[in-house]
């Protein structure tokens, strides 16, 4: 975790050896000041959120776009006592209270589904998935699949493009198409919205071996097309995607 409460202030660690207490579980936290990564807090007895994973500059950069009061918010299931820490929770106290999960590393289908089940009980949920290496097979396949010049479709004032997924392996894209929350990709300076099943149908789907995407830029809460929080994934049909893009 990047932030903890120290003497009434929520902040990142400032020096090696600092200690404080986790407000979520009461466990002891110690400061970690790595040379090649961002400072963070570590639970002495293991993180109280089993979904916690190593975080770096990408996570920090996105979290810092939001007020400190909205970053790393502990949530508890009142019925089961299950506890997890949302990367960002904004809109608290409004009908559009939303969890934003920042995903830099690979995630299993089971964990993705578990997170959606937990966070969507009382909130809208967005995924922001980092496509972080142009040199990787995933980054390469993602990049060559981006073709916004073909089949542009206007919907609710936004431009979507129907594209063909070019990768040999479809596991990555198929997994995110099955998501039950809104999915965005952070790729090459653009934020790409993976069209939900409902949006894909309105665009003329289901699509076969194609995809649709719509482009948006900065504020996550203004970049979602006019769909409900229960809509799902990248168009409809194997290898299909609907997306859009614009510079961040």
Structure write-up:
The protein has 5 helices and 15 strands. The chain is of the alpha+beta class and 248 residues long. It has 2 domains: 4-130, no CATH class; 137-244, no CATH class. Strand 7 and strand 8 form a beta hairpin.
Shape field: globular
User: What amount of the residues lies in strands?
Assistant: 25-35%
Structural class: alpha+beta
What is the alpha-carbon Rg in Å? 19 Å
Q: Mean of the pLDDT scores?
A: 82
- Side-by-side strand order of the widest sheet: 6-7-8-9-12-13-14-15-11-10
Largest sheet: 10 strands, mixed
Summed up, the helix count is 5
Low-confidence stretches: 216-242, 244-248
Beta strand count: 15
For the record, the count of structural domains works out to: 2
Summarize the topology.
Layout: E1 4-6, E2 9-11, E3 19-21, E4 28-32, E5 40-43, H1 57-63, E6 71-76, E7 83-90, E8 98-103, H2 109-119, E9 124-130, H3 137-145, E10 152-155, E11 158-164, H4 171-177, E12 182-187, E13 190-194, H5 197-202, E14 211-216, E15 240-244
Parallel strand pairs: 8-9, 9-12, 14-15
Antiparallel strand pairs: 1-2, 3-4, 4-5, 6-7, 7-8, 10-11, 11-15, 12-13, 13-14
């Amino acid at each position: 975790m990047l932030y903890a409460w120290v003497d009434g202030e929520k902040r990142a660690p400032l020096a090696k050896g600092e200690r404080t207490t986790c407000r979520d579980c009461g466990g002891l936290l110690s400061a970690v000041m790595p040379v090649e990564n961002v400072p963070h807090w570590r639970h002495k007895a293991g993180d109280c959120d089993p979904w916690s994973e190593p975080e770096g500059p990408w996570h920090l950069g996105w979290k810092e776009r939001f007020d400190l009061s909205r970053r790393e918010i502990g949530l508890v299931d009142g019925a089961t006592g299950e506890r997890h820490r949302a990367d960002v929770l904004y809109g608290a106290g409004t009908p559009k209270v939303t969890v934003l999960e920042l995903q830099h590393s690979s995630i299993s289908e089971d964990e993705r589904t578990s997170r959606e089940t937990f966070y969507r009980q009382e909130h809208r949920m967005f995924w922001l998935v980092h496509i972080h290496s142009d040199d990787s097979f995933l980054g390469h396949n993602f990049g060559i699949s981006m073709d916004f010049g073909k089949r542009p479709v206007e919907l609710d004032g936004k431009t979507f493009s129907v594209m063909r997924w070019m990768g040999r392996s479809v596991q990555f894209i198929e997994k995110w198409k099955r998501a039950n929350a809104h999915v965005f990709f952070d790729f090459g300076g653009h934020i790409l919205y993976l069209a939900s099943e409902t949006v894909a149908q309105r665009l003329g789907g289901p699509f076969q071996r194609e995809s649709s995407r719509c482009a948006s830029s900065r504020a996550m809460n203004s970049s979602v097309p006019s769909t409900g929080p229960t809509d799902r994934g990248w168009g409809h049909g194997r290898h299909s995607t609907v997306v859009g893009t614009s510079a961040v």
